[in-house]
Known about the structure:
Helices cover about 30% and strands about 30% of the residues. The protein is built from 13 helices and 34 strands.
Amino acid sequence: MNGKLIKKENTPTGYYTYISNDKKYFYYGTPGLMGLLQTSTASLLCSKPIWNKIDTSKGSFVQNILTITEDTLGRIWYGHGRRSLAIYEPKKDKAKTWMVEKVESAFGAFSSLTDKNGTVWIGSATNGLWYYKDYTKPAIPSSFIQINHPLLNNKKSVTGLSIYNNWLIISNYDKIVLLDIDSLFKFNKTHVRYLNPQEAAFTSFTEQNTLITSKKDSTVWFSTSDMLYRWDIKKWLSISWKPITVFPILNYNNQTDTLSIHQPFSYSPRFNSFNINVNYVSPDNLPRFMSCLFVKEGDSILLPLPSLDTKFNYNNLNAGKYNFIIQVYEMNGSVITYTYKITIKKFLWQQWWFWVAITLLCIGVIIYLLNLKKKKQLAEQASKTKDAELQTVKAEQAKKIANLQLVTLSSQFRPHFILNALNTIGAQMDDKPEAESVLSRLGESINLIFSHAQQQKIVHPFANEWQLVENIIHIHRLMYLKQLQTNVPSNDTLKKYIDIKVPLGILQIPIENALLHGLSNKENGPWILEINITENDHFINVNVTDNGVGRKKSAMLSNFTKHGTGTKNLIEIISIINASNEHKITIEYKDDVFNEGDIRYGTTVIIAIPKLLDYAN
């Protein structure tokens, strides 16, 4: 009978067959695009059965039908494991096909089964196990729900499905697992057990649709490409499985520690590489599937797929607190999680209090020197005579400028900046040249500012101010902005203005603000700072532009208010200087100079400095 049909259709044999639940119809899944063939079971007894060909003309576009099942409404589900899912409705004699490659379905049909409750189970070749239960929903792929469980590897083929009592037995390529159907639908709990790899001793993958449960003796038969298995599932389910006892061993520097969930372990920063062997005692002498993860506290926990691996290596770990998590999948279907706390200590120079102490010491020395300077200035001021009202006014202005100058000094190199610089030095002391570079630049800037303070002048050469600018850019590039891009005037341009006198900090403070508030708060690159210098008859104009987050967004950040003192003092100094000059120093801010769609960002500071400043010191 089949021989005559196949010969007529000129195609190979050996594909999937199925008899309907009412025993009236016989279905034959063909290769290629021949479609699904249907005939009555009664006609099979005849020498010439009449075949109904369900092909592309009726909506079936499945190439190589690999599985067939029938739901409680008499609809026939079938398909190909990687390519397609289809349904045939006998009453309408129409089929519908959904192709995976056209993103019409998330899965194909590699194996299938309908349980006693009418749930249609579909095993995919590439995307796990799916089911359709709610018949009020349309019979389409999006009405199916995927089963997610670590023991069901959704990237491997579900090659076979069978039923034993309330258990769905699943061939999942390299393992046999059991899904508790009652637990899933009554309690919404995915309860999964597995046939231990040592019991099965697979040497190959499970074959397609070779999984069957015997109704006579409650045994399960399945095969791989090289072996046939008989499994007494009734006896297996009656075994009282006991949990294993876990005791991980951490090995480091030729020493070992047995980890405990009740005791955290701490290690020197010199021992930041080690391996962990997960040892356990199994009452049944069978291995267990486990998921193990070593993760820093606060990081996302994403456990790997379960495996039989028990040895794990971790190298060159940073200082911090970690959790070693073991999730054991027991033979009775329970999942037990063990968490072990491990801390890798910091070096002395990585401790925050060490740098606070160093910073406080530096601040103490600076305050002492400033107090000596202030006492000297007060003594000199007391010895002067008041020649005239104008001289008295200028003397008071000079005193105010001197005090503001000292405040500006402390603001420009405020404690948190020194702390950050020293922290960078400490973190990079291990064979890195950046520490020496930051220290050199920092010392050079401090030397310039203290030298200026000792001269008791309101202004200093443009060359000195530009040196402060170069130092602050260099330090911020090393400390915070490794990928900072700068566009600054050429040396030939700068040489034209080296003798012009400018107030201390007039360039350094806006540029530091651009680096610290605008660019350092920007999460994604590029980070660009551009400085341009032009001139006219009476002024040199300096434009400082950054593509940072902008002043408005910086104002909302927690550290913004800690950095405003230098700018305020600079404005007050400029105000006093402007009172004695025809041509005024001006500083103008332009916000949101860049835009990308609805997002605006970036700041430009325009600084106009008279070429000639007239102010007596």
